[in-house]
Design brief:
Number of domains: 1
Number of helices: 7
Strand content: 25-35%
CATH class: Alpha Beta
Largest sheet: 8 strands, mixed
Shape: globular
Helix content: 10-25%
CATH architecture: 4-Layer Sandwich
Order of helices and strands: EEHEHEHEEEHEHEEEEHEEHE
Radius of gyration: 17 Å
CATH topology: Purple Acid Phosphatase, chain A, domain 2
CATH superfamily: Metallo-dependent phosphatases
Number of strands: 15
Structural class: alpha/beta
Distance between the termini: 21 Å
Length: 287
Amino acid sequence: MKILYAAELVGKAGVYAVKKGLPALKKRYNWDFLIINANGATGGSGLGRNHAGYLRKLGANVLTTGECCFYKKDLTENLEKIPYVLRPENLNAGAPGFGSRIYKAGDEKVAVAVLLGQSGFNRLHGNNPYALLPSLLERLRQETPYIIVDFHARATAEKQTLFFTADGRCSAVIGSHTRVQTADEAILPGGTAVITDAGRTGSVQSVGGCDPRSRIQEYLTGIPDWTRDAGAKPEVQGVFIELDRNGKARSIERFREALPDMPLPETPAAAGTGDEAPVDGEAEALP
């Protein structure tokens, strides 16, 4: 089983990078299953319903999110109808949507789950992911040996501790949220592939995909402003993972696919970033 994970997509540059970069990546890796972290796809924070539909049309099997999963009302109100979008699993029982799910990948099944870390998030708080992890992975393993966990967390120690907690119980745990790719990809003794952070898809000449000037202004004034995303030097970053038939990782490879700068002016319609009809329904998802 070949899995490609595109790291957190940030703003218009992220959508542009996915659209332009996926064809070359497909030729290089020829994956069976594509996961895109779309936590910052719409305006740099959150995922809108139309963006979700567009990324699905580009080939994503699953869109994962994180602490921004409920930032866009049009998606939140329709999460129950969009099984290819996952919010964190370790939220309260009344949260809308799905935190884990089984999907088709040809004749095989792939399980994907999202967990939210507990350190440093102010607007959305997850329950203890360590307490949930054993029962979650046992339930998913009854359906398929191929299990991918997106651990959306801020603290490096929290991520790495969960890696060793999950080792031997799932195929891979991919760290997300910091939007900076780390160089520590590894396969642990139990056969689980891990990386502290897969990086970001969007502008590299930026602060986490956001315009550097707005970030400088925030530090000078103390007034948060995440509304201005950047566009210079877009890249698709992420990891490519190959799994044996028993679900254990055979290899994990970091990648960075550099692309030309976006043409200006870049509108959502021109870039395909929001005007397309959303894609709903149960396509390729299993109950």
